[in-house]
Amino acid sequence: MLQTSSSSRGSLMVKWRQICFFNGWCREVMKKYIKEIIIRKDLLLYLVKSGLKAEHRNSYLGYFWWLLDPLLNALVYYFLVVVILGRGGENYGVFLIIGLVAWRWTSSVVSSSSRSIVSQASIINQVYLPKAIFPATRTISQMVNFFFGLIVIAIFLAAYGIVPGWQVVFLPLVILIQFLIMLSISLIVAFTCVFVRDIDNVMGHITRVWFYASPIIWDGGRLPAEYQWIISWNPLAYVVGAYRDILMYQKVPDLYHLSVIGLAELILCVLIMIYYSKNEHKIIKAL
Predict the structure, then answer these.
(1) Which end of the chain has the lower number of beta carbons within 10 A, N or C?
(2) Rounded Cα–Cα distance for residues 281 and 209 (Å)
């Protein structure tokens, strides 16, 4: 019995040392990779600015499209849902624009991130750069577009006579959580597209399914009980619901689920960054 207990304690000690070693290794790899990105912060800012300028470079209205695009989207879906289908409800215009602005950030990140690394092949083959910079710039640039969408939301709130309450202090938290979701998605999509170029074509169909599976133009509470799992397992549903609670309903958002999603996405981003750091040589070979 003594030999058995001592051997079990010894095996536990070995496992504990392995876990501590792995955690220490992960921290060192992560610190080194983040440090390399911070060193190249000027490049990061340059790519964000150039990406924003390139979006409407040859259009007459230019940056005004950052405001006009969500407004036109809202008008189209409002006409479809309210005028044609006779659905909607009280303050549906505000309900709709909040969902569409949040979704615009999501869809733009997914569509632009797929070729974020592949399109920079000429730079990557000449100079060593942390490859995570390229999908990260797409997430940040589309976040800037999202902030302009908040202006459109403010216009709708004023038109409907809705004044957000003190709960607006939670807005930065929700934006941060959506940023982590978008960053993890952009990193995964960009890396995968390097090796499987067809992902670029498939993502359009996936985002379309995701749009209709999220409460963007419809209220998730109206789903039958047997389909509520669609909302329960959809992180974007909690984010969009939080935006509406804060800006439209003057309610405290679901902090429990938001915290779980935020922590899970933070861990996922860290793991993806570590994976990038250990497999960047494969990206160079594939390009």
Answers:
(1) N
(2) 34
Instruction: Grade residue 153 by pLDDT with cuts at 50, 70 and 90.
Output: very high
For residue range 6-36, list pLDDT tens digits in order. Answer: 555 555 555 545 444 445 556 676 677 777 7
Type of residue at 142: Q
Of residues 139, 150, 144, 66, the one with CA closest to residue 107: 139
Residue whose C-alpha is closest to residue 34's, from 130, 158, 112, 118: 130
Nearest to 96 by CA among 72, 66, 112, 67: 72
Distance CA 217, CA 96 (A): 6
C-alpha distances (whole Å) from 35 to each of 20, 128, 136, 275 are 22, 14, 15, 16
Helix (H, G, I), strand (E, B) or coil at 85: coil
Phi, psi of 220 (to 5 degrees): -60, -25
* Cα gap 58→54, rounded to integer Å: 8
The residue with tokens 């405290």 is: 252
Q: In Å, how far are 68, 101, 144, 145 from 148, measured between CA atoms? A: 10, 9, 7, 5
- Map out the domains of the chain as residue ranges: 1-34, 40-286
Report how far residue 70's alpha carbon sits from residue 74's, in angstroms, rounded to the nearest whole number: 6
pTM for the model stands at: 0.85
- In percent, the amount of the chain with pLDDT more than 90 equals 31
| Contacts with 215 (C-beta within 8 Å, 6 or more apart), sequence order | 99, 231, 237, 240, 241
Identify which of 100, 105, 101 has the alpha carbon closest to the alpha carbon of residue 139.
Answer: 105
218-234: per-residue pLDDT in tens? 876 666 677 777 788 88
The secondary element (H helix, E strand) that includes residue 275 is: helix 255-286
Question: In the predicted model, what is the mean pLDDT of residues 127-151?
Answer: 88
